[in-house]
Amino acid sequence: MHALEPLIQKLKRWSDLDEADQRLVLSLPHSTRRFSRASYVVQEGTVPSHAGVLLSGFAFRQKITASGSRQVLAIHIPGDIVDLQNSFLDRADHSVQVLTDSEFAMVPISAFKDIAFQRPAIGIALWRETLVDGSIQREWTANVGRRNARERTSHLLCECGYRLEMAGLGHRTRFQLPMTQEELADALGLTPVHINRTLMSLDREGLTTRRRNLVQIHDWDALAAIGDFEPGYLHIPAALQPALTAAPVSKAR
Q: Which residues of the chain, if any, have pLDDT below 50?
């Protein structure tokens, strides 16, 4: 498969790309780069020259406060265009770090700009990608600002499962989420002790099981209700949203 095929699939979600558009996307100059766990793809304050398409692995955006506290701002999964907004900003206002060993297709920012203005359908798709990114960020702000620990955690687990299923990378009730409890705590504005207690509580109630990086949701409707999760903010086209079916494997406890 061509390294930029995941980019084609992501852009086609937001706009109708004809064959000429798709050929241009595949012809974008790029290089593939591997990053080991905890490596930085983008560092706050730098002037970015490339935007990365995540091909494998997981990554996250973060901000570090003056006191050294970290807030995780977003989780990136394969197929995501990481940090596209920096293509039109002078300096990176946050950092991107990988959660696992990961591979990226690094595309020069100038190439993204050129293709966006040359081909309206591609420009619209890239624009919508950044708008959806903003929509997700607003939901995360509401999650951390107005939901309690149990609700926040349930919402995040549902979002990750739903996004991974839509990307063909798992089932919403059974998926890989390679985040430590400390990283989950930083995404939810909690302490590691608090997130540990919350996850254990969801397990005891029979709602979830988390073993290493594997998350299993045993009652999707109940967890979604607890987390006030409604996927409209992800803006995934209705045609791409399959009905919830049973997970392809048993719910081993």
A: 250-253
